[in-house]
Amino acid sequence: MAAIARHGIDPVTYPGSDFQKVQAAFDDAINQNRSITLTRVFDITPETIVINKASDFREPTMIIGVNGGGIKKTNSGFMFTSPTADVSDFQLENIYFLGNQSANVKVIVCSKLIRLSTNKCYFDSLTTVMYTDDTRYLQSVRMNNDTIVRNVGAALDFAGAYDTVLTNVIMEKSSGFFINHRMLGVNENIYGFRIRDCTIEGLTGTTPAIKFKSCDSLLIDGCYFEQNVGGHIVFDATTSNLRHVTISNCRHGGSADVSHLIKWGKTSAGCFSYNNTSQNIGIHDTSQVTSGRIFSIYDKAISGSDSNTGNRIDYVKDFSDSYTALSGVGGYRTIWGSMVRLTSTLTNQTINAGATITYTFDFLEPIYSDNIVSIQIFSDNVKITLNISLVILLRLSLPMIAHHQRLLHK
Predict the structure, then answer these.
(1) Which of 32, 145, 314, 346 could pair with 404 as two cysteines, CB 3.0-4.6 Å apart?
(2) d(Cα 280, Cα 326) in Å, to the nearest integer?
(3) Which residue, among 49, 133, 149, 146, has the nearest Cα to 99 in the 3D structure?
């Protein structure tokens, strides 16, 4: 393996138009195994830069912007493509990308380019940053510390995805949205998709900031959402089959823009939500869910409430919500880890010798067929002999899973 040259090729040194300069620099960088340094903004309109590199040729092509250097394109089309599929190891750093909000300008054809990364890049006035056609998918994409502004479409628009990581990305002040999963082609699903520590704010369009269909292994963690008019995290109502989905440590701030942070999809089996908070909206909306359950641990809506349609959420509350008096029944609702304990109390009852007495207890919540019910009787007459017959009428429902079952204590 040859080492990458310390000093990159500067397209300024080549003759011709800006596009001709940049294309020649790319061709030489690939042939000579060198990097490229963009020292100013190069306007490639109306052309597209072609990465003339063999499929699966595992040497990096590094492009670095200095002093605000970058690429500009103002007509419809892509900035980068390749002649064949599976061209890899394309690395972009500190580059300014400028498009045209009135044209359909996209940056990278990810139907052909895979195993690529961006770091500290600035994407301005584009339609899409990463795009695949309906037959292909994102593969091993990394976006780190990037900023996206004035975007008019989906920043990432793809049919499916494998091993994609978005970290510390800021998307703001856009009429477009962040993620659009179209779920098309042979590899239509989501596998190993992680969104961490991103800020998504000020999206004025009617489309949710993050749109997913079927997912198998999705993590959204530590992200901040505010003033996204179309919604924040929304799974599809008709096609979503969600497995191994975790949304954790996210925060919604500012005034109420929509009703909930997360709108779950049709089938939500094995979905986990942890330590998410919101200021003025609810966390969960299960109105689209037809099967499955969501496990919610320590999620907290400061002002706002969940829409738990169909009773699809199993809650474990934080300490401040773990102990609540039940008015009128002399009992309490207590959170014990993944279990809920409900008590109902009667006092000062007299049972005469030989009498049969019927008592009615109200827990103020439904009792399910897999709940545990117990009775404790305390008598001030130590000589009393008890012969108890217990009859409990249950409102039958689909049982909750065993490690989520409530402990009902009478």
Answers:
(1) 314
(2) 26
(3) 149
Positive or negative torsion for Cα 60, 106, 192, 54: negative
pLDDT tens string 13-64: 999 999 999 999 999 999 999 999 999 999 999 999 999 999 888 899 999 9
Decide: helix, strand or coil at residue 403. helix
Residue of 107, 114, 63 whose CA lies nearest to 85:
114
Report the distance separating Cα 87 and Cα 110, nearest Å: 9
Check: CB of residue 265 under 8 Å from CB of residue 236. Answer: yes
Whether 265 and 288 have beta carbons less than 8 Å apart is answered as yes
- Starting from the edge strand earliest in sequence, which strands make up the sheet with 339-343, in order? 323-326, 331-336, 339-343, 407-409, 372-374
Cβ contact 148:174 at 8 Å:
yes
d(C-alpha 88, C-alpha 115), whole Å: 5
For the question of whether the overall pTM of this predicted structure is more than 0.90, the answer is no
- 110 burial level (CB within 10 Å; 0-12, 13-18, 19+): buried
| Each residue's pLDDT tens digit, 147-191 | 999 999 999 999 999 999 999 999 999 999 999 999 999 899 999
How far is residue 170's CA from residue 172's CA, in Å, rounded to a whole number? 6
Contact 212, 179 (CB under 8 A): yes
Residue 58: how many other CB atoms lie within 10 Å = 9
Q: Give the count of beta carbons closer than 10 Å to the beta carbon of residue 4.
A: 15
- At 286 the three-state DSSP class reads coil
Please name the amino acid found at residue 215.
C
Structure tokens at 337: 């880890």
**Separation CA 279–CA 254 (nearest Å):** 7
Whole-number Å distance between alpha carbons of 21 and 44: 9
